[in-house]
User: Fold this.
Amino acid sequence: MGRERNIILTKKQTYMSEITKCPKCGGEYVYFDGSLYVCPDCAYEFDGENGAAATSDNTPRDSNGAELLDGDSVTVIKDLKVKGSSMVIKRGTKVKSIRLTENPEEVDCKIDGSSIVLKTCFLKK
Assistant:
């Protein structure tokens, strides 16, 4: 029984020593978080086998996880202060015909004649 426990620990130690650096930034403080490895320096999540990203899907999604497309109409779910302005976008504001940007976490739209970039986490379809 003691020998079996040593073998299990040895395998675990070998596996942990294989993953010592983040494949994205090279950070050394990678930790296992249930099913994925996480780098606290760059917040990159990957599985330990080949360093592949956990989410390779770069499609923009709203706060509920629905896929957003060009021209969709969305609703703001929280009051948002606009940086550099005294304008506030109220919760429940309907935004028509959004445009996707290169960043999947942002969409471009027009509200009250002003062109504004909104984070997708504050929108719902």
Remarks:
- Residues 2-46 form a domain with the N-terminal domain of TfIIb fold (CATH 2.20.25.10).
- The chain is about 15% helix and 25% strand.
